[in-house]
Amino acid sequence: MAFDIGLVTLVLGVAAWTIGARETFAAVVGFVAYGLLLALVWVRLAAPDVAMTEAALSSGLTGGLLLGASTRLARTDGPAAIEKPSAIMRLAAAVLCTLVSAGLAALVLLMLEPAPTLAPRAMANIAATGLSNPVTAVLMAYRAIDTLLETVVLLLALVGVWSLARDRVWGGLPGPYHRADPHGLLTFTAQILVPIGILIGIYIFWVGSVAPGGEFQGATVLAAMWIIASMAGLVDAPPVTRRWLRLALIAGPALFFAIGLAGFAIAGGFLAYPESHAKLLILMIEVPVTLSIATTLALLVAGPPERAPAR
Amino acid sequence: MTEGTLYGLCSAVLVGLGLFGLIMHPEPLRKILAFNLVGGGVFLLFGVVARKGAAAGLGGDPVPQALVITGLVVAFAATALAVALLARLFQETGRATLQADE
Amino acid sequence: MPGSATAGGFLLVLAIVLPVAGAMLSLVLGGRYAERIALTVMPTGVVVAVAIGAIVWRTHNVLQYFVGKWDPPLGVAFRADGLSATMIVTAALLICGIGLFARAQFSLPRCVEERAPLVFWILLLTVWGALNAVFIGCDLFNLYVALELLTFAAVPLVSLDGRAETLTAALRYLLFALFGSILYLLGAVLLYGAYGTLDMVLLSGRIRAEPAAWAAISLMTSGLLAKAALYPLHLWLPPAHAGAPSPASAVLSGLVVKAPFFLVVRLWFDVMPRLPEHAVAQVLGGLGAAAIIFGSLVALRQVRLKLLIAYSTVAQIGYLFLMFPLAVKPEPGHPWSTAAWTGGVLQAISHAFAKAAMFMAAGLIAEALGHDRIAGLAGIGRALPITVFAFGLGGLSLMGLPPSGGFVAKAMLLTAAVAEGQWWWAVVVLTGGVLAGGYVFLVLARALADASEPLTLLSPISPSRQAVVVALALCAVLLGFIPLRPSELLHIGRPDIAIGGPR
C-alpha cells in the first residue's frame, strides 16, 4: 500500500510537471516518464498486457513522435509569439477542472466493490477459443470486431498522415533522411539492439495466446526497432507507392476480414470460429495483423512523404 | 481503501490536470500532450474497474483491459495524425499556432 | 436478451464491410483504380441499404446480429431499427450522389497516381463504412471505435488542398473531436463500472437514476455535442466545412455531423429513457436555440458563399436539439412527444439532402466564377440556372417552407411546442425560419441579378453534375410529401412509442 501511495504521488507529480513545464521539450520528457510510471501502475492493477502496451506505445512511440515534433517546432517558442490566457481564465479553468476531478473522485468512492464483472463469463467461454490468455480472447474472439475496426482506424490515420504530403513529393519517401555516422555509437547500438529487439517482439506476439503479450505489444516493439534502425541510417523508408508496402499495410485487416467472412461458411457467423480450429484461425489472423500494425505504427512515426521519389 | 480505489482517485486527478492543460495551453503541441494525459487518466479508470472486477481466478476483468489496449492504440493514431497536421502547418506558415486569421 | 440474430442480419455486416473493403482495395491497387472501385461499391452499397430498409419495413421488427455469435454482454451486437434503417438509406443515397458529383473533380489520370483523388475516394468510402457502423452499433465501445474511424476519415478531407487555412481548420476539428471522444469514453467507463455491460439494450434494462448514470449521460452528451458542433462548441465547423472541397463539405455537413446527434438520440431515448431529464433537456434546447439565432445572424454577415452555408449548418444543427425538450415527456408515447421526435429526425434527414445540394451548388458556382464571393454572384443565375434552382430548393428546406422535408420537420416541432405549452421553442423555430429566409434570399437575389457585363465562365460545368445536385435537392423536397404524422418506419423497434399520433 505504501508503494502504491508513493507511485501515485510520483505519477501525479510527473503529470503536473508535464502540464506546467515552461518548455515543450521538458514537458515531453515528463510525458515519457509518465508513460513508464503508468506501466508500473498497470502491473499493480494486475494487467500485464496493458502494461506492456502502455510502456511500448506511450513512452516509446508516442514519446518519440512528440520529441521529434517538439524539436522541429522549437523555433516557435519565440518571444510573445502566442498570447497566454489571462489570470481570470486560468482561475476559471482551474476551478472547473477541480470540480471535474472532485466529481470523478466522488464517483470512484461510490463505485461498487466488487464491481459487476464479465470475468466469469469470459473464463467460461475461453475453452471454445483455444486460448488461455483471457485478454487475447476478448481481443480476438469475443470483441474481434473492435480489433478489426481498430486496424482499419490505424490504416486510416496513416492515409490521413500521407494526405498531408505536398503534391510534388507524393509517392516519395516519408520523413527526412537520417544520416548517422556509420562508425558512431548510434549505429553500433542499433546494429546490436535491433536484431534482439525483433526477436523479442516476435516472442511477445507469439506467446500472447497463453501468457501476457499479443499482437499489439509485439507489433509496437517491432515498430520501435524499425524506427531505431532508420534513425541510425541502417534502413530507409520505402516510397509510399510501392505495391509491396501497401500490401504489407492491408494484409492484416484484409485477412482479418477474409477469415471473418469465411466464418459465415464454416461457423455460421461473421468472425465466428469453429471450436476445433479456433486457435489456428486466430493465429492465421494474428500473424499478418502483427506485420501490418508494426508497419503502420512505424510509418505513422515516420510521417508524410517529404522526399521526392527517385524517378 | 483498496488499491483500486487509490488508483481511481489518481485517475480523477489526472483527468482534471489534463483537462486544465487542454484548455489552458494555447500551443497545439501542448494540447496534444494534455489530451494524452486525460486519455491516460480515463484508461486508468478502466483499469480500476477491471481490478474491482477480479473474479473467476483472474486478477482483473479482462474486458475493460482489452478495451484499454484498443483505446491506447487509437489514441496513438490520433496523436500521430495531430502531430503530422501540426508539422505540416508549421512547414506552410512557420508558426505552430491555431490563431484564427479572421 | 430478447431474441437472437434475425435472418438477414448479415446485411448489417455487409453495410460496414463493403465500403471499408473498397477503401482498402483502393489503397493497394493504387490511384488508377480507386475511382472505379468506389463507383462499383456505391450501387452495391445502395442495394444493401435498401435491402436492410425493406426487411425492417416488411417484418416490422428490428434487425439484429451478434458478431462472432457471442451474445452481449460478452460480445458485440449490431442492431437496425426503423431509425437506423432510414439513416442507412439516407447515407447510401447521399454518398452515391456525392460520388457521382465528385467524379469530375477527383478523376484519376491514366498513368500516375495523384494524392488528392486517391485520398478522397479512400476517405469517402471509409466515412460511409464508419457512418453505417455508427447507425447499427449497439455497444458503446464499438461506437467509440466507429466514431474515431469517422473522425480520422473526415479530418483529412478538410485539409485536402493543403492550404494553411484548411490545415488549421483540420487541426482544430481534430482537437475538438478528440476532446469529445475522451468525454464520451469517460462516460462509458462509468456505465461499465456501475452496470457491467456496454450493450445499449442491456443497459436500458439495468440503468437506474443514480450519480454514476447522471454523470455518464452528461459526459457522453457533452462529448457528442462537441463532435456535433452545437453552440458553444461550434467554433471548428465553419472554417472546416467551408475550406474542404465541395463534395467533402457536402458529406461533412450532410452526414458526418449527424452521426453524433444520432448517438445522443440513441443515448437519451433508448439507453436512458427512464431517467427524468427535463431540466437537462431544456438546457439542450436552450443551446439549440442559441445555435439557431447565432448561426443564422452570423450567416447573414458572411462575405463568402461557402462560409454562409457552413454557418447555416451551425444554425440548422440547433433545430436538431430543439427536439429534446419537446420529446422528453413524463409519459413516453405521448403523441406530441412522438411528433417532436419525428420532427427532429426528419430535420436531420432533410437537412442532409438540402445542405449537400447547396454545398455542391456552391462548388459549381465557385468553379465557374473562380471565386465564391456573394457580392460577385451577379449573372450566375442566367449562366447556371439549374444550379441556382437547386440552391433555392435546398433553401426551401432550410427556411421550413412547403413543400420540403424541412417544412414537415419544423411544423412538427412547432405543433409539439405549442401543444405542450412550451411556446418559447415555437418562437425560436419561427425566428430561425425568418433568418434562414434572410440569408437564402440574400444569395438568390445576388445570383439572379443581372451582371453589369456578360459573364464568362472559367470552365464549362457539365449538365450531369448539375443534374445530381438537383436530384439531391429534390429528395429534400420529396420528403415534404410525408404525411404530417409520426412515421411508422421510423418507429419500428421503439417499444415505448405509440404509433397512433395526431392524425
Structure commentary:
The complex is a heterotrimer of chains A (311), B (102) and C (503). Chain A has helices spanning 2-20, 24-44, 48-72, 87-110, 119-125, 134-142, 144-162, 185-206, 215-231, 243-266, 278-302, and strands at 173-174, 305-307. Chain A is mainly alpha-helical. Chain A folds into two domains: 1-72; 118-307, no CATH class. The N and C termini of chain A lie far apart (63 Å). Chain B is built from three helices and no strands. The longest helix of chain B is centred in the C-terminal third of the chain and has 32 residues, at 62-93. Chain C folds into three domains: 1-138; 163-248 and 256-275; 278-503, no CATH class. Chain C is built from 19 helices and two strands. Chain C has helices at residues 10-29, 31-59, 82-102, 115-136, 140-158, 164-195, 200-206, 211-228, 237-243, 246-256, 258-271, 278-300, 305-327, 335-369, 380-383, 385-399, 405-420, 423-448, 463-478; strands at 63-66, 77-80. Chain C has a two-stranded antiparallel sheet with strand order 1-2. The longest helix of chain C has 35 residues, at 335-369. Mean pLDDT of chain C is 87; it is low at 497-503. At the A-B interface, helix 1, helix 2, helix 3, helix 4 and helix 5 of A face helix 1, helix 2 and helix 3 of B.
Mean pLDDT of chain A: 85
Tally of DSSP β-strands of chain A: 2
Which two chains form the greatest contact, residue counts included? A-B, 95 and 80 residues
Q: Give me the count of strands of chain C.
A: 2
Number of helices of chain C: 19
Distance between the termini of chain C: 35 Å
Q: Please summarize the sheet with the most strands of chain C.
A: 2 strands, antiparallel
